[in-house]
Amino acid sequence: HLDRIAAVDDAVHAFLHVDTEGALAAARAVDEDVAAGRDAASPLAGVPLALKDVFVTQTMPTTVGSKILEGWRPPYDATVTTRLLQAGVVILGKTNMDEFAMGSSTENSAYGPTHNPWDLDRVPGGSGGGSSASLAAFEAPLAIGTDTGGSIRQPGAVTGTVGVKPTYGGVSRYGLVAFSSSLDQGGPCARTVLDAALLHQVIGGHDPLDSTSIDAPVPAVVAAAREGAKGDLTGVRVGVITEFQGEGYQPGVTSAFNAAVEQLRALGAEVVEVSCPSFTLALPAYYLIAPSECSSNLARFDAMRFGLRVGDNGEHSAEAVMSLTREAGFGAEVKRRIMIGTYALSSGYYDAYYGSAQKVRTLIKQDFDAAFERVDVLVSPTTPTTAFKIGERVDDPMAMYLADLCTIPSNLAGNAAMSVPCGLSEDDGLPVGLQIMAPPLADDRLYRVGAAYE
Ligand code: GLN
């Protein structure tokens, strides 16, 4: 995998940092265990992995795709990092991402875009485009992403790989640099559903260091993937979401999705159509809630505690150093979100914007609850379009935000969702993703249906 990275990553740019020495040392340690006849630490011992650069790592830099953290070395490991290391997983390096995970194309990285291995002129999705591209380019067999509004599933869809957003609280956020704390969720990226399940098992589960971590066992995701692989979905009720079809969806996405629904039916699933009327309000609600939380979370980047410091030459006040540093260190999209969020939270506007968005969030949760009374899983296309061209949407934030139309409801409601490859679009030959959604703590259903389908 290190050779493959050396051969293709100049073109793909999936990695921000490759830890050749660390990876080889970790791999050697696994070899020594095997030679000494010791049990492997986990089924993934010795398997290479690409880690999104939003998880802190003591032995590697963590930039979160931002200049403001350039040169920062975290003094501790994220719980996800620790669990990977304890499982004997070989961390190859840190992957490229939209700055602070804000974006849908990886073009907001301060370190340049990642290219989609299917067509180097196109985006790999975002914010976790580096992680998904590293899988599609065969640089790594496993990767970790984070999904606040779609950043695991949407890059998965447009790179033809699997991505899972676990139930909120299912994977620890300790050491995950915060964007929107009530939405952020780490999860597995892989080329097959079973691989994703094996990784989910390693990183999931309760963590006392994260107050929102769920104190319950990891759902039986590996067993569910193995069960699903038998290809029998008899008795499984699947709901097709009415609101996530029709206008705005590329014809090739629609036909690949319809073929997937037919295949689920052929595997024995009972398919019905389910309306979730509030889902059309999810995107505007998200773009108030996520920036609001971001404006609070990013206040910690004050030029004193971490990374970059500009203008600290004795001539400027502390306030001036703070604003010079933020001016130089944050990119345009991050500044836009901080301003929107600060505005939405300000007195006089709070009820009208943030308060209303929170009410919409409740309506979306109620739509999911009602739907899951009738069906076991919901399905939709993961994204309305296939991978778009690099540069095509950079000047149009609204067009960029639409990439997450179908993924955002699951973040707002906190339930589990997966994107699994669903063939190639007849329009452009690029990958399409099938999104599967399940109730909170029923992540195993995603793996059963995903493995049966794939
Ligand atoms: N594209 C969405 C955003 O820009 C989602 C990002 C994410 O899931 N981290 O906020």
What does this structure look like?
With 454 residues, the protein is an alpha/beta fold. Helices cover 38% and strands 13% of the residues. The chain is built from 15 helices and 11 strands. The chain has an 11-stranded mixed beta sheet with strand order 1-3-2-4-6-5-10-11-9-7-8, sandwiched between helices. Helix 9 (282-297) crosses helix 11. The longest helix has 24 residues, at 351-374. The site of glutamine has 13 residues, from loops.
**Order of strands across the widest beta sheet?**
1-3-2-4-6-5-10-11-9-7-8
The 3D shape can be described as globular
Helicity range: 25-40%
Sheet-strand content, in percent, reads 5-15%
Could you give a short account of the major beta sheet? Answer: 11 strands, mixed
Strand-pairing-aware structural class: alpha/beta
Task: Find the count of extended strands (DSSP E, 2+ residues).
Answer: 11
Average pLDDT? 97
Structure ligands: glutamine
Radius of gyration based on Cα positions: 21 Å
Gap from first CA to last CA: 25 Å
Output the helix-strand order: HEHEHEHEHEEHHEHEHHHHEHHEEH
How many helices does DSSP assign? 15
Extract low-pLDDT stretches. Answer: none
